[in-house]
Amino acid sequence: MIIAIDGEASTGKSTQAKKIAKRLNINYRDSGAYYRAITLYLKRNQINPQETLGKDLFSKIDISQKFKNDSFSIFLNGEDVTSKIRGHKVSVSVSEYAKKPEIRNFVYNLLRKSSKLNSIVVDGRDIGTVVFPDADYKFFLYAIPEIRAQRRHKEINDETVKIESIEREIKERDDIDSTRDIAPLKKAEDAYAIDVSYLAIDQVFEEILEKITI
């Protein structure tokens, strides 16, 4: 079984996917975390988004994810970068890197490999449209930018970063994600859409869960 949860930035996709994975006792993969880890690696190595990335570069990148006991971790070449990939510098850069086709194909392969032998729930922006177009269940979460900015501000937990700047960056990211040539952000025709602007986490969870039949 494959469950795809797509949606806009900071709509709680990862939170819901993890809750579903725990409830159904299936594997969980955060596609955005893969892109963030790659972005972290490229920024550390001073590789800008305009550069062409060869296969030799990707052979130097080893990424793995772990979800156990309600805890998610991601490792970049053996280093736990779970907190580092959520930093502000990565957040404002990830969309520019993530739109590169060679990076997207690299992540697609990682995700599809994860689904070969096990049921899985995956969150992202093109899971139900590109990565797993035949997923058993598809959901699309969306919310107004102001609410998403408030949520991201709490996640960053840095008072020097203003909510207004986060909201501006979210809108810019929405524009980049929805207008890129490769796998743009959009709702799959057969996805169930949920406006999470004024819903509590558990309310969204129950709405998703009632659509899934085991």
What does this structure look like?
There is one protein chain. The chain is α/β, with parallel strands linked by helices and 214 residues long. It has a single domain (2-209), classed as Rossmann fold. Helix content is 45%, strand content 18%. The chain is built from ten helices and eight strands. The strands form two sheets. It has a five-stranded parallel beta sheet with strand order 2-6-1-7-8. A three-stranded antiparallel beta sheet has the order 3-4-5, with helices on one face. A hairpin with a 2-residue loop joins strand 4 and strand 5 (79-80). The protein starts with a strand and ends in a 5-residue tail after the last helix.
Which fold name corresponds to the CATH topology?
Rossmann fold
Silhouette: globular
Structural class comes to: alpha/beta
Number of strands: 8
Determine the mean pLDDT.
92
As laid out across the biggest beta sheet, the strand order is 2-6-1-7-8
Any idea how many domains?
1
* Main sheet summary: 5 strands, parallel
Q: What pattern of helices and strands is seen along the backbone?
A: EHEHHEEEHHHEHEHHEH
The poorly predicted ranges are none
- The end-to-end distance, rounded to whole angstroms, is 9 Å
Radius of gyration: 16 Å
User: Fraction of residues in helices?
Assistant: 40-55%
Oligomer: single chain
The helix tally amounts to: 10
User: Which CATH-level-2 architecture?
Assistant: 3-Layer(aba) Sandwich
CATH class descriptor: Alpha Beta
